[in-house]
Amino acid sequence: KAGVTQTPRYLIKTRGQQVTLSCSPISGHRSVSWYQQTPGQGLQFLFEYFSETQRNKGNFPGRFSGRQFSNSRSEMNVSTLELGDSALYLCASSKQGAHYNEQFFGPGTRLTVL
Amino acid sequence: QKEVEQDPGPLSVPEGAIVSLNCTYSNSAFQYFMWYRQYSRKGPELLMYTYSSGNKEDGRFTAQVDKSSKYISLFIRDSQPSDSATYLCALTLNAGGTSYGKLTFGQGTILTVHP
Questions:
Q1: A111 pairs with which residues across the strands?
Q2: Chain A residues within an 8 Å CB radius of B94
């Protein structure tokens, strides 16, 4: 069974640009969560999507947005990039999300903002 | 104050040692407790999860939860060089509402097991 895949794996952008990251969950998983990982703040929850609906959102500015498609694939977008957005962005999928379900993480996309 | 506190280490032990990793938390509403392992340049992988207070064992790994003290632990017996990684505790509230899909992580402890 294929795991969670994320593309691209590495990305370099400059301040002010925008970026779109993609996540394909494990087949059959309908919940996708996104996290930002930095050395200073650790892993922080961005948002969660289930059946194309955002059900939960963390404490990040509106520059961070996401969406989910009917095949459960998800994208997140960061507009007007800032230096502080440099981080490893991880997505995780789980089966349903109504109760706790094990979250499986992808390898992440490492974003560098210059 | 962070909701979940975890000593970032680093922790260096000889092969074969027993490793103890710990987290404390402040919100008594947390219901599920997990330990993830993250190798360099990889995503976290789930090692263990528990729901109630007590111990849960899986091979060389034992997870311990003490809800009264808001304290969780992971013990690794007979540690191996391949256990060298960052270990993250993660907690979540019960189902629904603001808990959907949200894991609250500790800072992570960097562990090195040297031969």
A1: A11, A87
A2: 99-100
